[in-house]
TrEMBL record:
Keywords tagged on the record: Golgi apparatus, GPI-anchor biosynthesis, Membrane, Transmembrane, Transmembrane helix
Keyword match Transmembrane helix: yes
UniProt subcellular location: Golgi apparatus membrane
Protein name, UniProt field: Acyltransferase PGAP2
GO biological process: GPI anchor biosynthetic process
Organism this protein belongs to: Echeneis naucrates (Live sharksucker)
Length: 254
């Protein structure tokens, strides 16, 4: 049982104290619930606006960009992403410290841990960019933010799987083996979903076939869900850790 933390020689009880898995779960649930809410509102109340494209063929699902660019959907999405971004940076730096402790003098794992942190930060920044600049406001900036998010996400997942392969090699823990197994599996799903989404997006733009945009939107959802599932594995990796906020103020005797 943790009794507090020593700061400048004084033991201070934490102001806020929650388990790391609970922190990770709440962080992932914010964009998940936000996305589901935005898609449902767009489908029910803004169906024509959120599913209409230049092809003018029937579509049955809004894309993510379309569903988060309308009102009140955009405000819900921005609230959820803004609230979840700080814990995302916390998790990124927690992984960085974890890798540095294990791979302080190993190559290529030590430089890969730095790249892993960089692409995790880029992924979060890309998500913030595409969130706060909607496709209906400045399409080019929104598109670049989406590209930054997707590319950084895939590279981050690839590097993470490589690092956990090394961790598994020198560990007999079944938890580490399970974490590596699911990370690799989710990465493969992510790449497959991205390929299908890209194919149906191309098919929609070239041939304007009815239903192609709907399938693109469906696989786009799956790409995002796979991304969330990958980040959720942090709950296994740090299941015994806690997140604490400790007051820095000192009691003074007068």
């Amino acid at each position: 049982m943790l009794q507090g933390s020593s700061i400048l020689g004084h033991d201070r009880p934490p102001v806020i104290r929650i388990s790391f898995p609970a922190c990770v779960l709440s962080t992932v649930c914010l964009p998940l619930l936000g996305l589901i809410t935005c898609v449902l509102i767009s489908s029910v109340f803004h169906f024509e606006d959120s599913t209409g494209t230049h092809c003018q063929v029937p579509n049955y699902l809004p894309s993510i960009s379309a569903s988060i660019s309308l009102s009140p959907e955009c405000h819900i999405w921005r609230f959820c992403i803004g609230l979840h971004s700080a814990p995302r940076f916390l998790v990124a730096f927690t992984y960085f410290k974890f890798y540095k402790a294990r791979f302080s003098s190993k190559f290529p794992e030590n430089p890969l841990s730095c790249l892993n942190l960089a692409f995790s930060v880029f992924e979060n920044l890309g998500l913030l960019l595409l969130t706060y600049v909607s496709s209906s406001e400045t399409y080019f900036v929104h598109k670049e933010g989406f590209a930054l998010f997707i590319i950084s996400s895939v590279i981050y997942m690839l590097i993470t799987c490589r690092l956990w392969k090394s961790i598994k090699k020198y560990s007999l823990s079944p938890e580490i083996a399970k974490s590596h197994h699911w990370k690799v599996r989710i990465l493969l799903f992510e790449i497959a979903f991205l390929a299908f989404a890209g194919f149906f997006y191309w098919k929609h733009n070239v041939y304007c076939q009815s239903g192609s945009y709907t399938l693109f939107a469906l696989f786009e959802y799956l790409v995002v869900f796979a991304n969330m599932a990958f980040h959720l594995t942090a709950a296994w990796d740090f299941k015994s850790q806690e997140v604490m906020v400790i007051s820095s103020s000192e009691d003074k005797n007068f």
